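pipeline/complex-builder :: batch 7 item 3
reading input block
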Amino acid sequence: MRTTKKMAVGAAAAALGVSTLAACGGGSEDSTSSDGTKSKTVTLVAHDSFAASDSVLKEFTEQTGYTVKVLKSGEAGEALNKEILTKGSPQGDVFFGVDNTLLSRALDNGLFTPYEAKGLGQVRADVRLDDAGHRVTPVDTGDICVNYDKAYFTDKKLAPPESFADLTKPAYKDLLVVENAEQSSPGLGFLLGTVAAYGDDGWQDYWKKLKANGVEVVDSWEQAYNEEFSGSAGGKKAKAERPLVVSYASSPPVEVLYAEPQPKEAPTGVATGTCFRQIEFAGLLQGAKNEAGGKALLDFLVSKTFQEDMPLNMFVNPVVDGAKLPALFTDHGAVVDKPQTVAPEKIAKNRDEWIQSWSSLVVK
Amino acid sequence: MAVPVAFFGVFFAYPVAAIVGRGLKADGSWRWGRFGDVLSRPDIGQVLWFTTWQAAVSTALTLLIALPGAYVFARFEFPGKQLLRAVVTVPFVLPTVVVGTAFLALLGRGGLLDELWGIRADTTVWAILAAHVFFNYAVVVRTVGGLWAQLDPRQEEAARVLGAGRLAAWWRVTLPALGPAVAAAALMVFLFTFTSFGIVQILGGPAYSTLEVEIYRQTARLLDLPTAAVLTMVQFAAVGAILALHAWTVRRRETALKLVDPAQTVRRPRGVGQWALLAGVLGTVLLLILLPLGVLIERSLDGPAGYGFDYYRALRSVEASGGTFLVPPLEAVWYSLRYALVATVIALVVGGLAAAALTRRAGRFVRGFDALLMLPLGVSAVTVGFGFLITLDKPPLDLRASWILVPLAQALVGVPFVVRTMLPVLRAVDGRLREAAAVLGASPLRVWREVDLPMVRRAVLVAAGFAFAVSLGEFGATVFIARPDRPTLPVAVARLLGRPGDLNYGQAMALSTVLMVVCAVSLLVLERIRTDRSGEF
């Protein structure tokens, strides 16, 4: 009985907001470790698709003395919203993965502490969307396009689709899988691509046709590409059935990279008429525990070392002048001459409404 | 009385009110017009319709499938009955995430039916309904069966002697006696399915969402707080109505029924019909409850290199989760257990004090308080979790980065169970014993210790077990407040399910199995110490 009483006292204390609990041996486990290693760790909060080579992260540690902890926080949209909801008491120091489609949401909510990264001068001018405020630093660009499984179309003696309009043709019925525009940045990018192509009053009709043509919507890029798309290595393993997926112009080289043995030609191709240009940013979170480390990490994200490591890890293009693309990219990557774009202000004004309409139209 | 009221004020009313205020207030004035705007939207209308419709159908199906079970448990004696009773109850204490995962293993991609016949039924209504029936089977069997076992069979026999047919006798005598219990069970099932979150989140796919899932979606994905606030209020109103109805039926249930000891009414099944009924019930339990759980265990062992513990081993490393977690997923077990333990203590203290207050006093005010304690069962857990995030972030209550947030949220859900379990027992303690002790010079505390405690000790243990299991499985609120560096088991499972690839899938199955075993063990311990078998659950 003695223990019950002790526990009761402890719980009463806890209920009163005292966060020490002698009775349960839990103890307070604040993220501050007592041996002072905290300041030597910098935490990068990112969406689920973030990836970097270990060797490169080690190099950062050698250069600066900070160890990077990567925290994957969900799909791009949800990861960003989580940070906005807990603004001021963030889960990490730097956030990576807010793109031009969601940028205004982050900026309007004052998510980031301004910081001008060293080496920003080397970054291409056309992607520096916040040069006035320096709240975010551009890290990569990618063209979001429909990818196709070459083998499928060769077998069926069918020409792969090339444009948005092709996707609604009966020949391609039930073949396309796209990501949910509510959560996934490629999903939202593809939606904006259709808005740019068909205009404010035409895109909904286009999606109606797409829906009638059996488009499948899944929640994340990872699921769409690695589980539903028959052209990817993961999809082959999962016996996926859809030969068309919304992914990146730089996805085919990666398929070559991971195939054993490496084929002469990429197993997948890109429908270059279906592309939307995406720019991804990183920023120092408001209230970061390790600001100095966060700043060092932002500098590192636009350094040549990281920029040249990125393409084969995240299938994106560097933004720094003089960062070399791997040969694999130049050999197998698709060059997109005219990606669709939507002006940032227009995105800021209409995005939420577009997502809402899209959702009611396609998903519900 | 003061402690529970303060607890609910700070950790329930205040966060929920703050969220609602944030969504409905603009420039310092209330915008009630938002109700009309939101509720007239076709997509929201669809969500409301689907929520109600699936809850009604789930309830009907559960009654249809579980009532024969209730009868068999109440009236028949057969070998293995105790074990089967425990098995049937396991689903109810299982976290919804585990239920979702189990049905995914059965119906989803690469699931059992997919392998056998190429059938995929996840992202369909059927998967949701099946999971709901699975989950609530025990509610009906326990609530209705408990009463049925105590009904005097001689009443029905008397009717038969007076010339009523078998069916007429059942219809006229037994059913009216059971009516309130059936209604109460049905309302409980309706409440649980109406506010379903984890199951719909995992099995529903993008097309189906209940109110609770929609609140999550509007908050976490669309950052549309006004809509989320309106939906919270709607759910609040609906739950309030359901609970009021439930309280009313429970009061009706206490009408004078002639109850007898269950031991007098059970007997071995006789004749083909009764044996067939028993076989049918056993078959149902096998198909509906054991099969999904069995498949879940099977999938968790079906590793890349044949059967083995590969996925369980993968749970020990951070690398295997690919940066989804900062700690090995297996650590979530310890976090979860620790959280649940603290939550249980909080729930016992708050719930125990509340139950004590409710026994001492009577009257309208207390009844209202009683209903208030039930509210967390049905108020959007998502809203509570989210409310915690935005309210408990300023001194003196700056708990946002503190681990205590999670057990606090879990305790909110545990309290109703504690109150429900303790109240009948406390009310049964004879007040004169207390008075006698007081006259003999015992202090109030000592009276409680020497008189009440020995009598309610078992009830406390049962309540603790329920609170523990419920805390362990809480998902809606914790999904918001559990940090990735300190995940709870259900949150970890949901995260793993959201990632592609065999390894993540396998790990989700393995972690679910771990969670299921922990819950099942705590339930079996409960079964051993259970005293009266006519509990509410």
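note: The two ends of chain A are 55 Å apart (CA to CA).
queue -> next item
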